[in-house]
Amino acid sequence: MDHFLYRDGVLHAEDVPVAEIAAKVGTPFYCYSTATLLRHFRLFDEALAGMDHLVCYAMKAASNQAILKTLAQAGAGMDVVSGGEYARAIAAGVPGDKIVFSGVGKTHEEIRAALSTGIRQFNVESEPEMEVINEVALSLGKVAPITVRVNPDVDAKTHAKIATGKSENKFGIPIARAREVYARAAALPGLKVVGIDVHIGSQLTDLDPFRLAYRKVADLTETLRSDGHDIHRLDLGGGLGIPYTRSNEAPPLPVEYGAMIKEELGHLGCEIEIEPGRLIAGNAGIMVSKVIYVKSGEGRDFLILDGAMNDLLRPAMYEAHHDIVSVKEPAPGIEQQPYDIVGPVCETGDTFAKERMMAPLAPGDLVAFRSAGAYGAVMASEYNTRPLIPEVLVHEDQFAVIRERPTFDEMLKRDTIPEWL
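Request: output the structure for the sequence above.
Response:
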């Protein structure tokens, strides 16, 4: 469910007409719904009721500070994967003891910053990283809380570029080597083992892969406890998928996911951490774009938009589907026609959809890309010297620009010309 609905023939974001936002900020832009963000966070929080738990939003999905602050005020922790994300979380008012640091390539500088300011735990991805965290912690006179990310060799049955739990993926240590790695961690004086971490991928639409992975984690918990380790926290990652089309069978609900966690892991008495990102932010955001031209081609018509692959990369990178709707509600019974929907970037890959059935559109009409809140703005670039597009947050009948569109002058001033030129 989201809060982007037609009212009086016009798409609204909560109580704000999308066309009103477009008139003020220009197109393209991202628009997020506060009500949807909070609803999705609370669904996860409620799904784990009765267990000691923390829902840590995976902020790589959408990391604007206004979004982080909205979720943090509702009780969310944060899952970060870089020093920059850590700095964003701290700037948004998230306390260090509610920030989990994941990611396969943590640097000395990132580790030092997190330990100096405060961190809930590092999710350790490799033995060399474990040694570095120990070294940095000792240099600061601190002890770093850690989990070890284990790779359970479970096929998440998702897109190859977002699968993380198979043996050939770069993430974590093989679960078969967990005992020796935990033994090494226990011997390092700058580390304190607090639990186990696992994450098998993103956009999962079936609970079975989760169940298989969590059963392996449950067995490992018992084994490590018998080895003398204090395993009291299980970080289960994220990955629950969202419906990108209105026709697809819906993925499992957070309440079903929570019930499965309780069934598979509840007997262990561990604190549970989960790290949803896409399901919290995905359907909470749209990208709004304007039709520049309608072009008749050989056997097909093209809608050429002012939004492009640099603004929304997912279709070009993942062959991802987004429902695309007119901001002005089509009249009942109007005949649709197929369009190839493309952007202005000089790449054939700058194609959002092929032969998509739409009511007839004309230059100046607005369209909205649904389910664009996750991995939209955060993956955008300035390719073709196209400015990063604004982000807007709606709250009931109010809206605010939470990231401005830079001017060309601001972009150009970031370049430095050497003296010899």
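The chain has two domains: 4-31+282-412, 34-280.
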